[in-house]
Amino acid sequence: MSALHPIISITGSSGAGTTTVEQTFKKIFAREKVTACFIEGDAFHRYDRAAMKAKIAEEKECGRDFTHFSAEANELEILESIFEEYGRCGRGRTRHYVHDDEEARCYGTPPGTFTEWEEFAESDLLFYEGLHGCVVTDKVNVAQHCDLKIGVVPVINLEWIQKIHRDKAARGYSTEAVTDTILRRMPDYVHYICPQFSQTDINFQRVPIVDTSNPFIARWIPTPAESILVIRFANPRGIDFPYLLSMLHDSYMSRANSIVVPGDKLDLAMQLIFTPLIHKLVERKRRMS
Asked: Do residues 228 and 261 touch, judged by C-beta distance below 8 A?
């Protein structure tokens, strides 16, 4: 962790909603005049789309599943080295993984490939969003470099519904293809994704209050109003729970470190919780400068 060059990390699996959380942070940064560098977790995949398909087929012939959730499919050593460099001197680099035609037009690189590496511009902090922002293995410890670690964790059936609908609508996959991906990823989800939520400072878990018992035939994604949000603080010291309860109508505390909030108040809850935390990081940085 670094007082001069803080790092915020948002971690969650595909379809969890980490991009929505990132948009809220961007609003806070703009309002509070905080300059951030951004890292996308997908930029640290080890293989482009074509090479990944070939690697999956190769591993399948050997009776093994190979997925983006695993450490072997990602350049986690490079990610940790960039976090370490940024925390030490405020410098680093990143690239983009191009998902679709729209992004291809933006970056000038075909879908399924990477852009060239680019150096960070001057910034107040570094912001990561992706699969492995708090990962710890026998080879890397990304979590140790982060000053604020946030997990985004829908209950598993909701996560699957969101992924199925996103991949079908945005990427043209069939339900069967998405289901196959979910099944292949399950061991890596258990070994690499779930443990990260024990490393986080705050977890946001969205829980639907409508029937999601068979996510593979769900016609609609439960709306925010059809959900509740469980927010867990690893260390509740310094969190003004009475203030949060007064500002978030119909919220309540379920444990000494957890607050339950109506799902449609996600953005407001994040604004109330994260704004003072960002102020604290930035003020500490400016005092040390």
From this structure: yes
User: In degrees, to the nearest 5, what angle opens at C-alpha 279 toward C-alphas 274 and 284?
Assistant: 130
The 10s digit of each residue's pLDDT in 46-103 is 999 999 999 999 999 999 999 999 999 999 999 999 999 999 999 999 999 998 899 9
SS (H, E, C) 90-151: CCCEECCECCCHHHHHHHCCCCCCECCCEECCCCCEEEEEECCCCCECCCCECHHHCCEEEE
126: β partners: 7, 37
Least Cα distance to 109 among 119, 122, 123, 99 occurs for 99
Dihedral, CA of residue 175, residue 180, residue 181 and residue 184, to nearest 10: 160
C-alpha angle with apex 284: 279 to 289, nearest 5 degrees?
Answer: 125
Q: In this model, does residue 170 exceed pLDDT 70?
A: no
DSSP 8-state code for residue 190: I
To the question of pTM greater than 0.90 for the whole model, the response is yes
The DSSP letter of residue 223 is P
Residues 6+ apart with CB under 8 A from 118: 93, 94, 95
